[in-house]
Q: What sequence folds into this?
């Protein structure tokens, strides 16, 4: 493999991993400040926002589809007391990006989220191309400069991935309403729905238990590549969350990988 080809391959893996991590935590891109704080019909949702926010962490299981581009499953635990923290295991299940990752030797990865950056652990094939380093470090601010605008608003979207932020989005919706009582994973829940505006309009549904905690969240919308959807389940609120920074010697910086591609200083 030539140096140029190797650099392009490394950059392709890095960008695909960035997209995968934001997809695993995708969230409706819309306002999170409610405009009507006196509406009595949304008062129960405010209790949900407070209870879920105070819980500080939860276990998460999610399935995400981004049209023809990518589909994946994620499982792990996330915390939100002091910025987004936690660890997810992300498994690619379909789409063009997943196929690219498979060809490059990666079918799943571990993602560690910290308040300023996240880290993605890649496979041995990636490590072979970057001096044996298995992790990519993504500083959120650097992702804003990702080509074609793919990283625009990344940090903001990451902050909105926690369950209490989904409630804030519904509180800001003009058409939020209670659907009714339903059984979700064997638990009695109340179902709420609403439309969240943004770059693309999305529908957000949540199911809440008798402790005012989210049990399930579903987001749906459309993009140029097709339908975008995510179904997430939450459990074990208050669980201990761990997200350690990987060893520096085993970590490649995303920004440096892209600069190496442009300047010819990586791979060979």
A:
């Amino acid at each position: 493999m030539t140096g140029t080809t190797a650099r392009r391959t490394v950059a392709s893996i890095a960008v695909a991993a960035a997209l995968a991590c934001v997809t695993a935590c995708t969230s409706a891109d819309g306002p999170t400040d409610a405009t009507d704080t006196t509406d009595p019909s949304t008062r129960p949702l405010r209790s949900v926002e407070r209870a879920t926010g105070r819980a500080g962490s939860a276990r998460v299981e999610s399935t995400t589809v981004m049209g023809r581009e990518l589909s994946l499953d994620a499982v792990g635990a996330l915390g939100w007391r002091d910025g987004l923290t936690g660890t997810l295991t992300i498994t690619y299940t379909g789409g063009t990006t997943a196929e690219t990752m498979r060809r490059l030797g990666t079918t799943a990865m571990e993602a560690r989220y910290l308040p300023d950056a996240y880290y993605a652990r890649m496979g041995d094939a990636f490590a072979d191309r970057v001096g044996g380093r298995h992790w990519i470090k993504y500083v959120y601010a650097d992702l804003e400069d990702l080509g074609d605008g793919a990283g625009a608003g990344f940090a903001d979207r990451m902050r909105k991935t926690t369950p209490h932020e989904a409630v804030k989005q519904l509180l800001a919706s003009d058409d939020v309403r209670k659907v009714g009582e339903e059984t979700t994973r064997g638990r009695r829940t109340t179902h709420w729905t609403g439309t969240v505006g943004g770059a693309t309009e999305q529908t957000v549904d949540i199911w809440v238990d008798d402790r005012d905690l989210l049990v399930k969240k579903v987001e749906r919308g459309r993009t140029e590549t097709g339908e975008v959807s995510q179904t997430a389940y939450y459990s074990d609120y208050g669980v201990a969350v761990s997200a350690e920074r990987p060893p520096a010697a085993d970590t490649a910086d995303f920004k440096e990988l892209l600069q190496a591609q442009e300047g010819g200083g990586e791979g060979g």
